[in-house]
Amino acid sequence: MIKYTNFFRILSTFVIAVALLSLTGTNTQALSGSFTDYKFGYGPIASINNDWIVAGHWMGYYNPSNLTDSGFHSTFDKAMKNGSAPHMHQISNGTISDVKMDGNNSIIQGSVTITMIDGPVSNVPTNWTISNNNTLAIGLDPSKINNHFGESPIYGLVLTPDKEMKIMNTMMEDSKFMDQWIPLMMQNMMSTLNMNGENISAMPQMMNHSISNNTMEMNMENNTMIP
Fold first, then answer.
1. How many CA atoms lie within 13 A of 146 on its CB side?
2. Are strands 87-102 and 105-116 parallel, antiparallel or unpaired?
3. What is the CA radius of gyration of the chain?
4. 56: helix, coil or strand?
5. Which are the contacts of 193, defined by CB distance < 8 A and separation ≥ 6?
6. Quick check: 69 and 85 in contact, CB under 8 A?
7. Euclidean distance between the first and final Cα of the chain, in Å?
8. 87 Cβ contact partners less than 8 Å away, ≥ 6 residues apart
9. What are the Cα distances from residue 173, in Å, to 10, 19, 108?
10. Domain limits of the chain?
């Protein structure tokens, strides 16, 4: 069990790092200040109303001293509750015009481009509300997108690397389940990558070679979009 759980923790840490690098690294040339000047956030989209379900991911950043230096991206799937009409939306070209605090909540105003069935719609007025550094509400102007999402916001969660590692460590406590699930996940992943049986059989040696400790801890700074 140790070799599987430690490998999975390392794999999860790598995935988290790649996600953060994809947020900052692709925009390195456009940054007007140092990395420490920026506020950023990311997490899952997890929203539901009476008719449909939305699920995906979001990432965003801004420079408090220069709000024009900002960005927001989200890609998510949408489908009716009965599984019909599945389709995807992408929000991009996010720009921020104002940030203010209301108690423990950050209220951010700006505009985005969102893909619709007839093509992208630009300059859609948008409000982002981050509540207690835990939840995100994305309010898109319904009049600009034919009321496609109704009057309710699209909701998501605000994550940090520290939060994700705590979730992963808690999941690992269910060792009986993980003893079955991790090998299945690894075999499926390798099959997807078209790895042959020889490579699969060599994975335990690869993991033992890569992992020298039985435990793994992380202590990462809690960076958020909240000023």
1. 9
2. antiparallel
3. 20
4. strand
5. none
6. no
7. 42
8. 77, 78, 79, 117
9. 16, 25, 38
10. 1-30+174-220, 35-160
Kind of pairing, strands 52-63 and 66-80? Answer: antiparallel
Taken in order 91, 95, 98, 104, is the CA torsion positive or negative? positive
Q: Assess contact for 219 and 36: CB atoms under 8 A.
A: no
Residue whose token pair is 């940030």: 99
Q: Please give the C-alpha separations between residue 142 and each of 8, 14, 151, 208, in angstroms, as whole numbers.
A: 42, 38, 7, 54
Tokens of 214: 């039985």
3-state secondary structure 142-203: HHHCCCCCCCCCEEEECECHHHHHHHHHHHHCCHHHHHHHHHHHHHHHHHHCCCCHHHHHCH
Per-residue pLDDT of the chain (227 residues; tens, 9 = 90+): 445 555 555 555 555 555 555 444 444 444 445 566 889 899 999 999 889 999 999 999 999 999 999 999 999 999 999 999 999 999 999 999 999 999 999 999 999 999 999 999 999 999 999 999 999 999 999 999 999 998 899 999 999 888 988 988 898 888 888 888 888 888 888 888 765 555 545 545 544 544 444 433 433 344 454 44
Do residues 186 and 11 touch, judged by C-beta distance below 8 A?
no
